[in-house]
Amino acid sequence: AKWKWMGPEKANSQKEPSSNSSNTVLRPRLGGKRQAIVFFTQLIAAFIFWVFTIMFYFTISRLPYYQPQLLVAGHRGVWTDGYAENSFEAFDFAKTQQYAAVEVDLRMTKDQKLVVMHDITLDRTTNGEGAVADFNLDQIQQLRLKREGTDELIDEFPYTLDQAIQGSQARGQIINIEVKQDKNMSAVALALDSICKTNATETSFISTGSTVFQHLLYYLQPNVTLEKDFLLHTPSMALMVPSNVNVYAISAELALFNLWVIPNAKAAGMMVLVYFLAIESPGMINFFVALGVDGFMLNNPEHCAGAGVCKPPINFTLERTM
């Protein structure tokens, strides 16, 4: 390489500075030909890495379905055009698609009761307007649910958790309960009360907001299965979770950036459930099947069928293996 002295005031000067200059910097300068070689070498290396990544993904995504037991849950019952989310018609459709479970969302009403609702407001999913927290439960249950994509009203209203659990039990489905105010102890306590009151401790699991809550709930209701959605950086962190946290949920997008969370959760004896925010497809489903996950929360039933992972409902035992 050629070397060039570059002073602060004459950066482009070819003249060497005097020996008493204290502000000069010695910098290497590559010739134009060598710069081009370095650039194209880096470009080729990046291209090769990209090609091998794509080949790995498509190879994995085409592996045959091999896990005999996968828990497939319908996100919000079924979250797709033509169906009202968090409704019994969604539960029925999930059953026809051989989903073993359904997922529902809970929010607190003005009179401190739980209603099955995903959004903060009523506008998107019902014929009402305004925030869920501004209305009492009996007011909300006078509304009607909308079908996704068409805004067609159906003859169903927003349910209580008791009603949703009973609906899933009547269809032989496991119910995955997400409390949207999951750091609100009152909301979580009400959800636990509904689970116990409807004898759903063996056919449901509930997501909670903090590890502190989980330890507390473990002592209050040790028979209720809890779900946790957080980063498991190391196996030791996973083992710190209470023993009734049997389900570990992670978004596919996050798992791709930290694939260690899957073996860490498995090492702690937890069932790993993957849900998709944006990249749901048959290929991605099979990719995570190959990584050894135990189930999925899916939006589109066509993706499930395309991946070949939807099987007849399975009687899952939601117990830690460690």
Question: How does this model look, in words?
Answer:
It is a single chain. By secondary structure, the protein is an alpha/beta fold. It has 2 domains: about 35-65; about 70-305, TIM Barrel. About 35% of the residues lie in helices and about 15% in strands. The protein has 11 helices and 11 strands. It has helices spanning about 30-60, 90-95, 135-140, 160-170, 185-195, 210-220, 235-240, 250-255, 260-265, 280-290, 300-305, and strands at about 1-5, 25-30, 70-75, 100-110, 115, 175-180, 205, 225-230, 245-250, 270-275, 295-300. The chain has an 8-stranded parallel β-barrel, surrounded by 6 helices. Strands 1-2 form a two-stranded antiparallel sheet. Strand 8, helix 7 and strand 9 form a beta-alpha-beta unit. Helix 1 (about 30-60) packs across helix 10. The protein is globular. Residues about 1-20, about 60-70 and about 310-315 have low confidence and may be disordered.
Please compute the radius of gyration using only Cα atoms: 27 Å
Order of helices and strands: EEHEHEEHHEHEHEHEHHEHEH
CATH architecture label of the largest domain? Alpha-Beta Barrel
The tally of helices reads 11
Q: What gap, in angstroms, lies between the N and C termini? A: 60 Å
What's the count of strands?
A: 11
Count of folded domains: 2
Share of β-strand residues: 15-25%
Q: What would CATH call the class of the largest domain?
A: Alpha Beta
Q: Mean pLDDT, as a whole number?
A: 75
Main pleated-sheet profile: 8 strands, parallel, barrel
- Low-confidence runs of at least 5 consecutive residues: 1-19, 60-68, 312-317
Shape: globular
